[in-house]
C-alpha cells in the first residue's frame, strides 16, 4: 500500500488540532468544540501529530471518513486572533508599512504603491549583490541538507566529533565515530551530494527549486502575475513529488478542482509552516530597496498555500531580501522585514524578541536556548520559529557570512531552509560568499530548462527582471 505523506486525511487531523492550539481556537470561545473534536478523534484510535514523520501506519486508513469530517468541522471554527490574510488587512495592521519608493528626480513616472506601474530604471542593484544572494542561498541550503531532521544536540555532536564546532565548513563523514554516526544518521537523500566529500556542484533541493519557479513566473507573466498564474506554473512544471507539507496539500487541492486561495485552507493544517517563506527571495531581489513591492509579490505567491503567519513569513523574507540589495547591515534588513508583518501577529513578536536577544547576548548558543524555550512546541518546519532563528543569526552574525549560515543550521530546526534564507541575505549584504562556500557552478534541478544552469546565469536573469 502506498502511504503518500502529508495529504492523507487521517494523517492531518492531529496536525490540525495542533494548529488550533497555536492559532487560538483551542483556547478561545470555541475551545470546547475543538477539545470535543480531539476527543472524538482519539476515541476512534486517531493519533496526535507526529513530531517528524509525514504519514502514519497503513492501518490508519480505516479512519479516513471520520478524519475528513473532523477536518471540515475544525476548519469551520474561526481563529480569534487578529491576524488577517488579505493584503489590505495586512497593510492596515502594519503601522510601519513602507512608503512607496520615491521615483528618481526627473522621471516622468510618479511614485505608486503598485509595483507593476513603477519604471524599470528605478530598480537596480549591484550585480555582485545579486550573485552573492544566489551563491549564499545555495551555500546555506547545502550546509543544512545532510543534517535536516537531526535535532540541535545531534548537529553539535556531529560537528564536535569531526572538529567542526563552531561550524566553519561543510559537514563530513570523514573521522566521524561510528557510534555518533549511528546515533545521528545523515539525511538519507542528502548525504550523497552535500557532505564535504560528496559535493559536486549544487544539488537539487526544494529551497532552490522554488526560487527558480518565482523567477519563471516573473519571466512569463511579469510583475502583474496572479496567484492563478503561480498555480498553473506549478501544474505545468513542478513535479508533485518535489512538494511537501502545505505545497503538497495545495497541489492536491488544485487537482481536485479547488480554486485559490481556498487551496490554502481546504484540509491544510500546514498553512503556517515554512513553505511560503522559502519561495520569497526572488520577489525581494527584483525590488531592491523596495520592501513594500517585494512583500506584495510574495503575498500573491504565498496565498496559494498559506494563511496568516505563513503568508507573513513570505512577506518578511521578501522585504528583507529587497533591503539586502541596498542595506549596510543586517539590523537594517530585519527592520525592513518587520515593517511588512502585522504588529500584533505572533510572527512579529517572535522576530522582535529574537533580534533583541541576538543584539544583547554575546553567545549565540544562549540566543538559541531562548528561542527553543519560547518556540520548542512548534513543529521543526513552522514559520515562526525558523523566521525568528533567521533574524537572530543575521543580527548576531554582524556581517560574518560563515557565522550567519552556521547559526541558522546549528539552531536545529529546518536546517536547509533556514540556512538558505540566512545565506541569501548575508550573501547579498556581503556582495558574495567566501571561497570555501563556493561550489562548482552548476545547479541540479528537475524543473524544465533549469538542470545544469549556473548561478551566474540566474543572477543575470534576476537582474534583467529588475527592469521588467
UniProtKB/TrEMBL annotation:
Gene3D superfamilies, alphabetized: ADP-ribosylation/Crystallin J1
A GO molecular-function term, please? hydrolase activity
Which keywords, in A-to-Z order, does the entry hold?
Answer: Hydrolase, Magnesium, Metal-binding
Q: Which SUPFAM superfamilies match?
A: ADP-ribosylglycohydrolase
Q: What does the cofactor section's free text say about binding? A: Binds 2 magnesium ions per subunit.
Please report a single Pfam family linked to this protein: ADP_ribosyl_GH
Q: Residues that bind Mg(2+), according to the entry? A: 414, 416-417
InterPro entries noted in UniProt: ADP-ribosylglycohydrolase, Ribosyl_crysJ1, Ribosyl_crysJ1_sf
What this protein needs as a cofactor is: Mg(2+)
Q: What is the designated name of this protein?
A: ADP-ribosylglycohydrolase family protein
Q: Which organism is it from?
A: Nonomuraea phyllanthi
Per the UniProt record, the lineage of the source organism begins with: Bacteria, Bacillati, Actinomycetota, Actinomycetes, Streptosporangiales
